[in-house]
Batch of 4 targets.
Target 1
Amino acid sequence: MITEHIAKHGQPQTSVRPDVAEAIAQLLELGEQQSDLQPAVRLQIEVLRTIYALPVTVYALSLTTEEVVTRWGTGTPLLHNVSLPIDLVQFRALFQHLAAVTYQHERAQCVADLDPLALAHMLLSGDRQALIHQIQASGCSPEPIITLLRLALLPFLEQVAEQLTPLRTSPDVQRRAPWKHGYCPTCGAWPLLATVHGQEQQRHLHCGMCATTWPAERVWCPFCDTRDHTQLGYLQVEDSPQSIAVCDACHSYLKVHKTLQRLTTPQLLVAEVASIHLDLIALDRGYALPE
Ligand SMILES: [Zn+2]
Ligand SMILES: [Zn+2]
């Protein structure tokens, strides 16, 4: 079968990663349970299949403990202003392919004019104004393109972040420069969601761009840093293992998932779809995600 496939399409068929297959099965189940989610489910399955269709190549990022301590001491994420240790040809191809799958029709032309590598660098360097300006100059809408960038970076940065785990979690770094910020210690993105698990209900934040997970205090807003409990609360969601933490100081919200096990990276994309109703509730109540 595989030989036949190679003969037909000129490239080997790759097997689906077990965690990707599991996430797709969960999405299909979600779509069956909630028919209004069907379009979002179908799109997310396409995204998962596309971003994990081919192997991705990443290179070693040489960072020393001292460099991590220096960066974190000034609140600087590890991938801020470094040349991305990923195969740039593969990344460009994945971005274009993902755009063709998810960003179709009349707007497709604007995508062809974008330089995904330059955009990724702006995104990772926190240069949001330049990023938005560049996207708009091509005639594309910033928000969907930034989502596309995040998703196309995910399979690469997931591996880069994984590679940096021993350094990030080393007792020396933890003692000298523990990460106390709401944005991702690896890539600088805001958290996609939070999880709580265990008897102590320990909260963790999860990055949707590099899949880094980092611990967070419960009475704390990761977006504006307030610890004022009178400004922090939850929106009630009936019959749901998910809740919405809200901050009245900066009017942002964070989706919180109760989990029994650690979420895999593909499951972050399942959780994103499974919690669309939380976004609607939060937006309806006047809260928003930070820029
Ligand atoms: Zn990240
Ligand atoms: Zn806040």
Target 2
Amino acid sequence: MSSHKNKSHADWKAITKLFTHDRKNIHMGASQFVVSHPKPVHEAIDKYRKQLDKDPVQYTEKVENEYMQRVREAAAQYLQMENPDDIAVTDSTTMGLGLIYTALNLQPGQEILTTDHDHYSQHEAIRMATGRTGASFRRIRLFESLSSVSKEEIVLSVKESIRENTRVLGITWVHSSSGLKMPVPEIAALVREINVGRSEANKVLILLDAVHGFGIEKESFGELGVDFFITGCHKWLYGPRGTGIIAAKRSAWQTVTPIIPSFTEVMDKVIAEEERPKEMDGKQMTPGGFHSLEYRWALCDAFHWVMDMGKEAIWERVHELNRRCKEGLAEMEHVVVHTPLSDELSAGIISFDIAGYSTEEAVQALLDKGVIATASPYKTSWTRFTPGIINMEEDIDKALEVVQSLKK
Ligand SMILES: Cc1ncc(COP(=O)(O)O)c(C=O)c1O
């Protein structure tokens, strides 16, 4: 099964029917918040749950190692990574960010460079980790204005801000405040240049909160060029709620010390032989304890379902729906669209304001007319639509009609 299969003639109508969300409202927020499970994911969870309920001990003992490895293999295939062991399985983006920032072997005097545009989960994880270690953090603004932002401006801002003691650059693939998609491969190329001549212990590591690019965008892990790729799988991938992954380069795994002991084979080895693997990897960074196992195992099925539709086809579809929605909004005199229009600088999040309404009032007014939008959880909060494969063109057009009707 190729992750690049292109099914541009995919039956999107049939795909939306795999979701069981109610049809009395138009769901213009679910893909970016938390998903409604599509039928294949729902059925996989149900299949594993039935087996677990029948015989939890024997079933878990029999399949746990194998099924967790299947999840890693599917994630590695999706991201086009060679070694599935470079994938850690988590519960969410937030868990991944907290785990990696806390696990990093930071030294006093080193700094984490991050930006004004990242999510609360990344900012707090950085604040807590630096508070523990005596490292520091700094936040920068990446562009003057969303109406004129360019890839070049963003890369230059990063270039001018990296210092001798910058050990980590923490960024976000698609900002959930504005919907801006960052030029991640270009930033990674810049950091590679900066790292030439730096000792291994001082190289700048890039940590990416990938959650709003993951499941839409096409780049492989290698093409992005980051060290740590952290994401939840319960947004644009439509995986089981409460699942996420961390993908990292083998060299990056060597810069962390696990926080939570992992289970599976690592546990068996330590108990039997007091022996720990010589090299750190994603297996050892997968938090142990029994989890909601049926959800975790069904992540493998979610990856296969998405790969079967094809990354390319999904990219085309989500961008097509977003273009339709953004262009419709941009034509309205009483609406300001903050998200860049180009495919290069945006993905699936559209942030906008409606004249005469605060964001809270706009979300409520839309809901009163049957459209579920979200408010971005940032100091400057905007109304968001997030068209994804759960939506059809009719949803977009009806949502646009409702926005039009809110003109004062
Ligand atoms: C940019 C960004 N990062 C992280 C999160 C948290 O995601 P998760 O539910 O996977 O922890 C969100 C929430 O929507 C977000 O917008």
Target 3
Amino acid sequence: MHTDIIQYYKDRAEEYEKVYLKEERQEGIAQITRYLQEWFLGKSLIEVACGTGFWTERIAQTATHIYGFDINPAVLDIARSKTYASPVAFEVLSYEDLPKAPFGYDALYGGFIWSHIPREKLPAFVDSCLRKVPESGMLVFTDNTWVAGNSTPIYHTDQHGNTYQRRTLENGEDYLVLKNYFSREELEAFWKNRIQKIEYIELDYFWLLKLT
Ligand SMILES: C[S@@+](CC[C@H](N)C(=O)[O-])C[C@H]1O[C@@H](n2cnc3c(N)ncnc32)[C@H](O)[C@@H]1O
């Protein structure tokens, strides 16, 4: 079984957006879209792990400009093939190299990457995200809530409490994918005393965190 998450998203690039077609998640996806378009209205932002540009496309309808990065050139090829309502620049970069991303943006967004970051690496990730936005800036993260009977079962838990799912792609290969789930309290604890205001919104299949 493959264990490299970067390889997993490389191999999944062409089929990735099928996840956004799940019937029961349409209402939540529409709600997230409305929140993101309202929150990023008139703002410039860095988009961490932007993938195929699914959210970039939606945010670009109200944001001024976006710098999106991802570690996988394969997903960025798809993102680059789309048209956007405002200027968008894409670059290959790891979130571990976030300090190398440009400065000068009002805000930062991370869609569905928080759950893939090893728990022990989250404090450093929080630090580097905070350094990228000005004092008056905003950070937004969205990700999945655990939904019993709907979420892919947990296959393995490591010594840091990271949970892993066994996922099969259309190429027939199996992958062990790190995917963590968090309570509201756990999420807020990462940001407490680091930021003035924490807003947490829970939807049926998703959570949103707005930090200002
Ligand atoms: C669940 S997808 C989210 C994509 C997009 N943000 C979205 O919500 O549709 C996770 C993304 O994280 C990227 N990724 C994984 N490890 C990364 C890393 N170390 N640095 C940057 N991107 C990474 C993958 O290539 C993939 O595109």
Target 4
Amino acid sequence: MSVRQRIDALCCELESNGDLTEPAWRAALHAVPRHLFVPDRAWAAPYDAKGYLIDREQDAEAWMDAAYADHPVITQLDDGVTDIATGDGYYTSSLSAPGVVVDFLELLRVYEGNRVLEIGTGTGWTAALLSHRAGEGNVVSVEIDKSVLDVAADNLARAGCKPRLVLGDGAAGFPDRAPFLDRVHVTCGVSQVPYAWVEQTRPGGIIVFPWMPGLEPGHKAVLTVGRDGVAIGRFSRRGASYMMLRDQRPPGGEYGSGHRESRATAEPRRILEAGAGLDVAIAGLMPGVSATAKQGDPFEVTLWSGQSAAHVSGAEVTQYGDRSLWDELEDVFFRWIEWGSPDRTRFGLTVTPEGQHVWLDQPDNVIR
Ligand SMILES: C[S@@+](CC[C@H](N)C(=O)[O-])C[C@H]1O[C@@H](n2cnc3c(N)ncnc32)[C@H](O)[C@@H]1O
């Protein structure tokens, strides 16, 4: 199959999933072939199957298949400490999945000539797509990891694109172009939105990012900056999971030895699988809480935040630290039921110089 045929097939898949609707992005996908951004050795990470090593030298066809599949390709583990061939470690850089990338780009509503800041260059593929749409002189991409940025620069050169690449902490934005950014596209997970992004964006400008406050998957947030320097916007219909902004990675827990035992009132599985709307409510009402769930019999849940944690196995609840996180979670669940079980698109986020808050239906209905 030729590269052109592979890109056409990928575009058809993205169109049928609803990720790709605009011809301009179809043209960009053809202009900057994704395989130019795949390292010779990397870890393919399908959503519905086990990950596997792709090695161009060993199996060029499988490598090419992964380049044009709608799933992420992991390019770095543990900030480069762990060999990618193990696939075993904390994912720290990747070539994001085409569907998520394109859906985000459409949410960003980029016009030709827009001055765009990308945070998290990774392989450089998104920066290349943005350059094709907005014009390469208008795109700045910031990456925190020098080795990642060096590879991105090579990839972009091979693809014939020259956005401006900057080594630095994207949490600070890119003050050199402030306050004239039209668009900010963050391609790492964010729990707390740095106000610098809002401050550096012109009124009416758009900021999109994966909001990942602690429960997987995260949410695609689309904010517009107002004339008063406050950014307001809603969550899009579909979720997204990205690698976290480096200084917002969730801390590991250190809990005290004392604990309290009780039984869950509501079914833990019912709560954890209630959907993304409840996840947003939890993030709004219990900021800083992370959770993981493990399928099986018994169904298991772990919650943690600061010095507190809760572990639920079946209906047995064990809570550690000052906060009773499971009890708090049940309270949020019942409040969300009383609100009519709103889905994630009914929620939104406001970012001010003082911080951020989540609202339901309209910005003045802040959930507390
Ligand atoms: C999911 S990857 C980005 C994918 C990329 N946009 C692409 O098209 O391939 C996330 C990237 O964000 C980078 N990153 C994490 N924290 C950052 C920060 N504070 N500033 C800039 N880049 C950061 C990581 O090093 C990683 O390369």
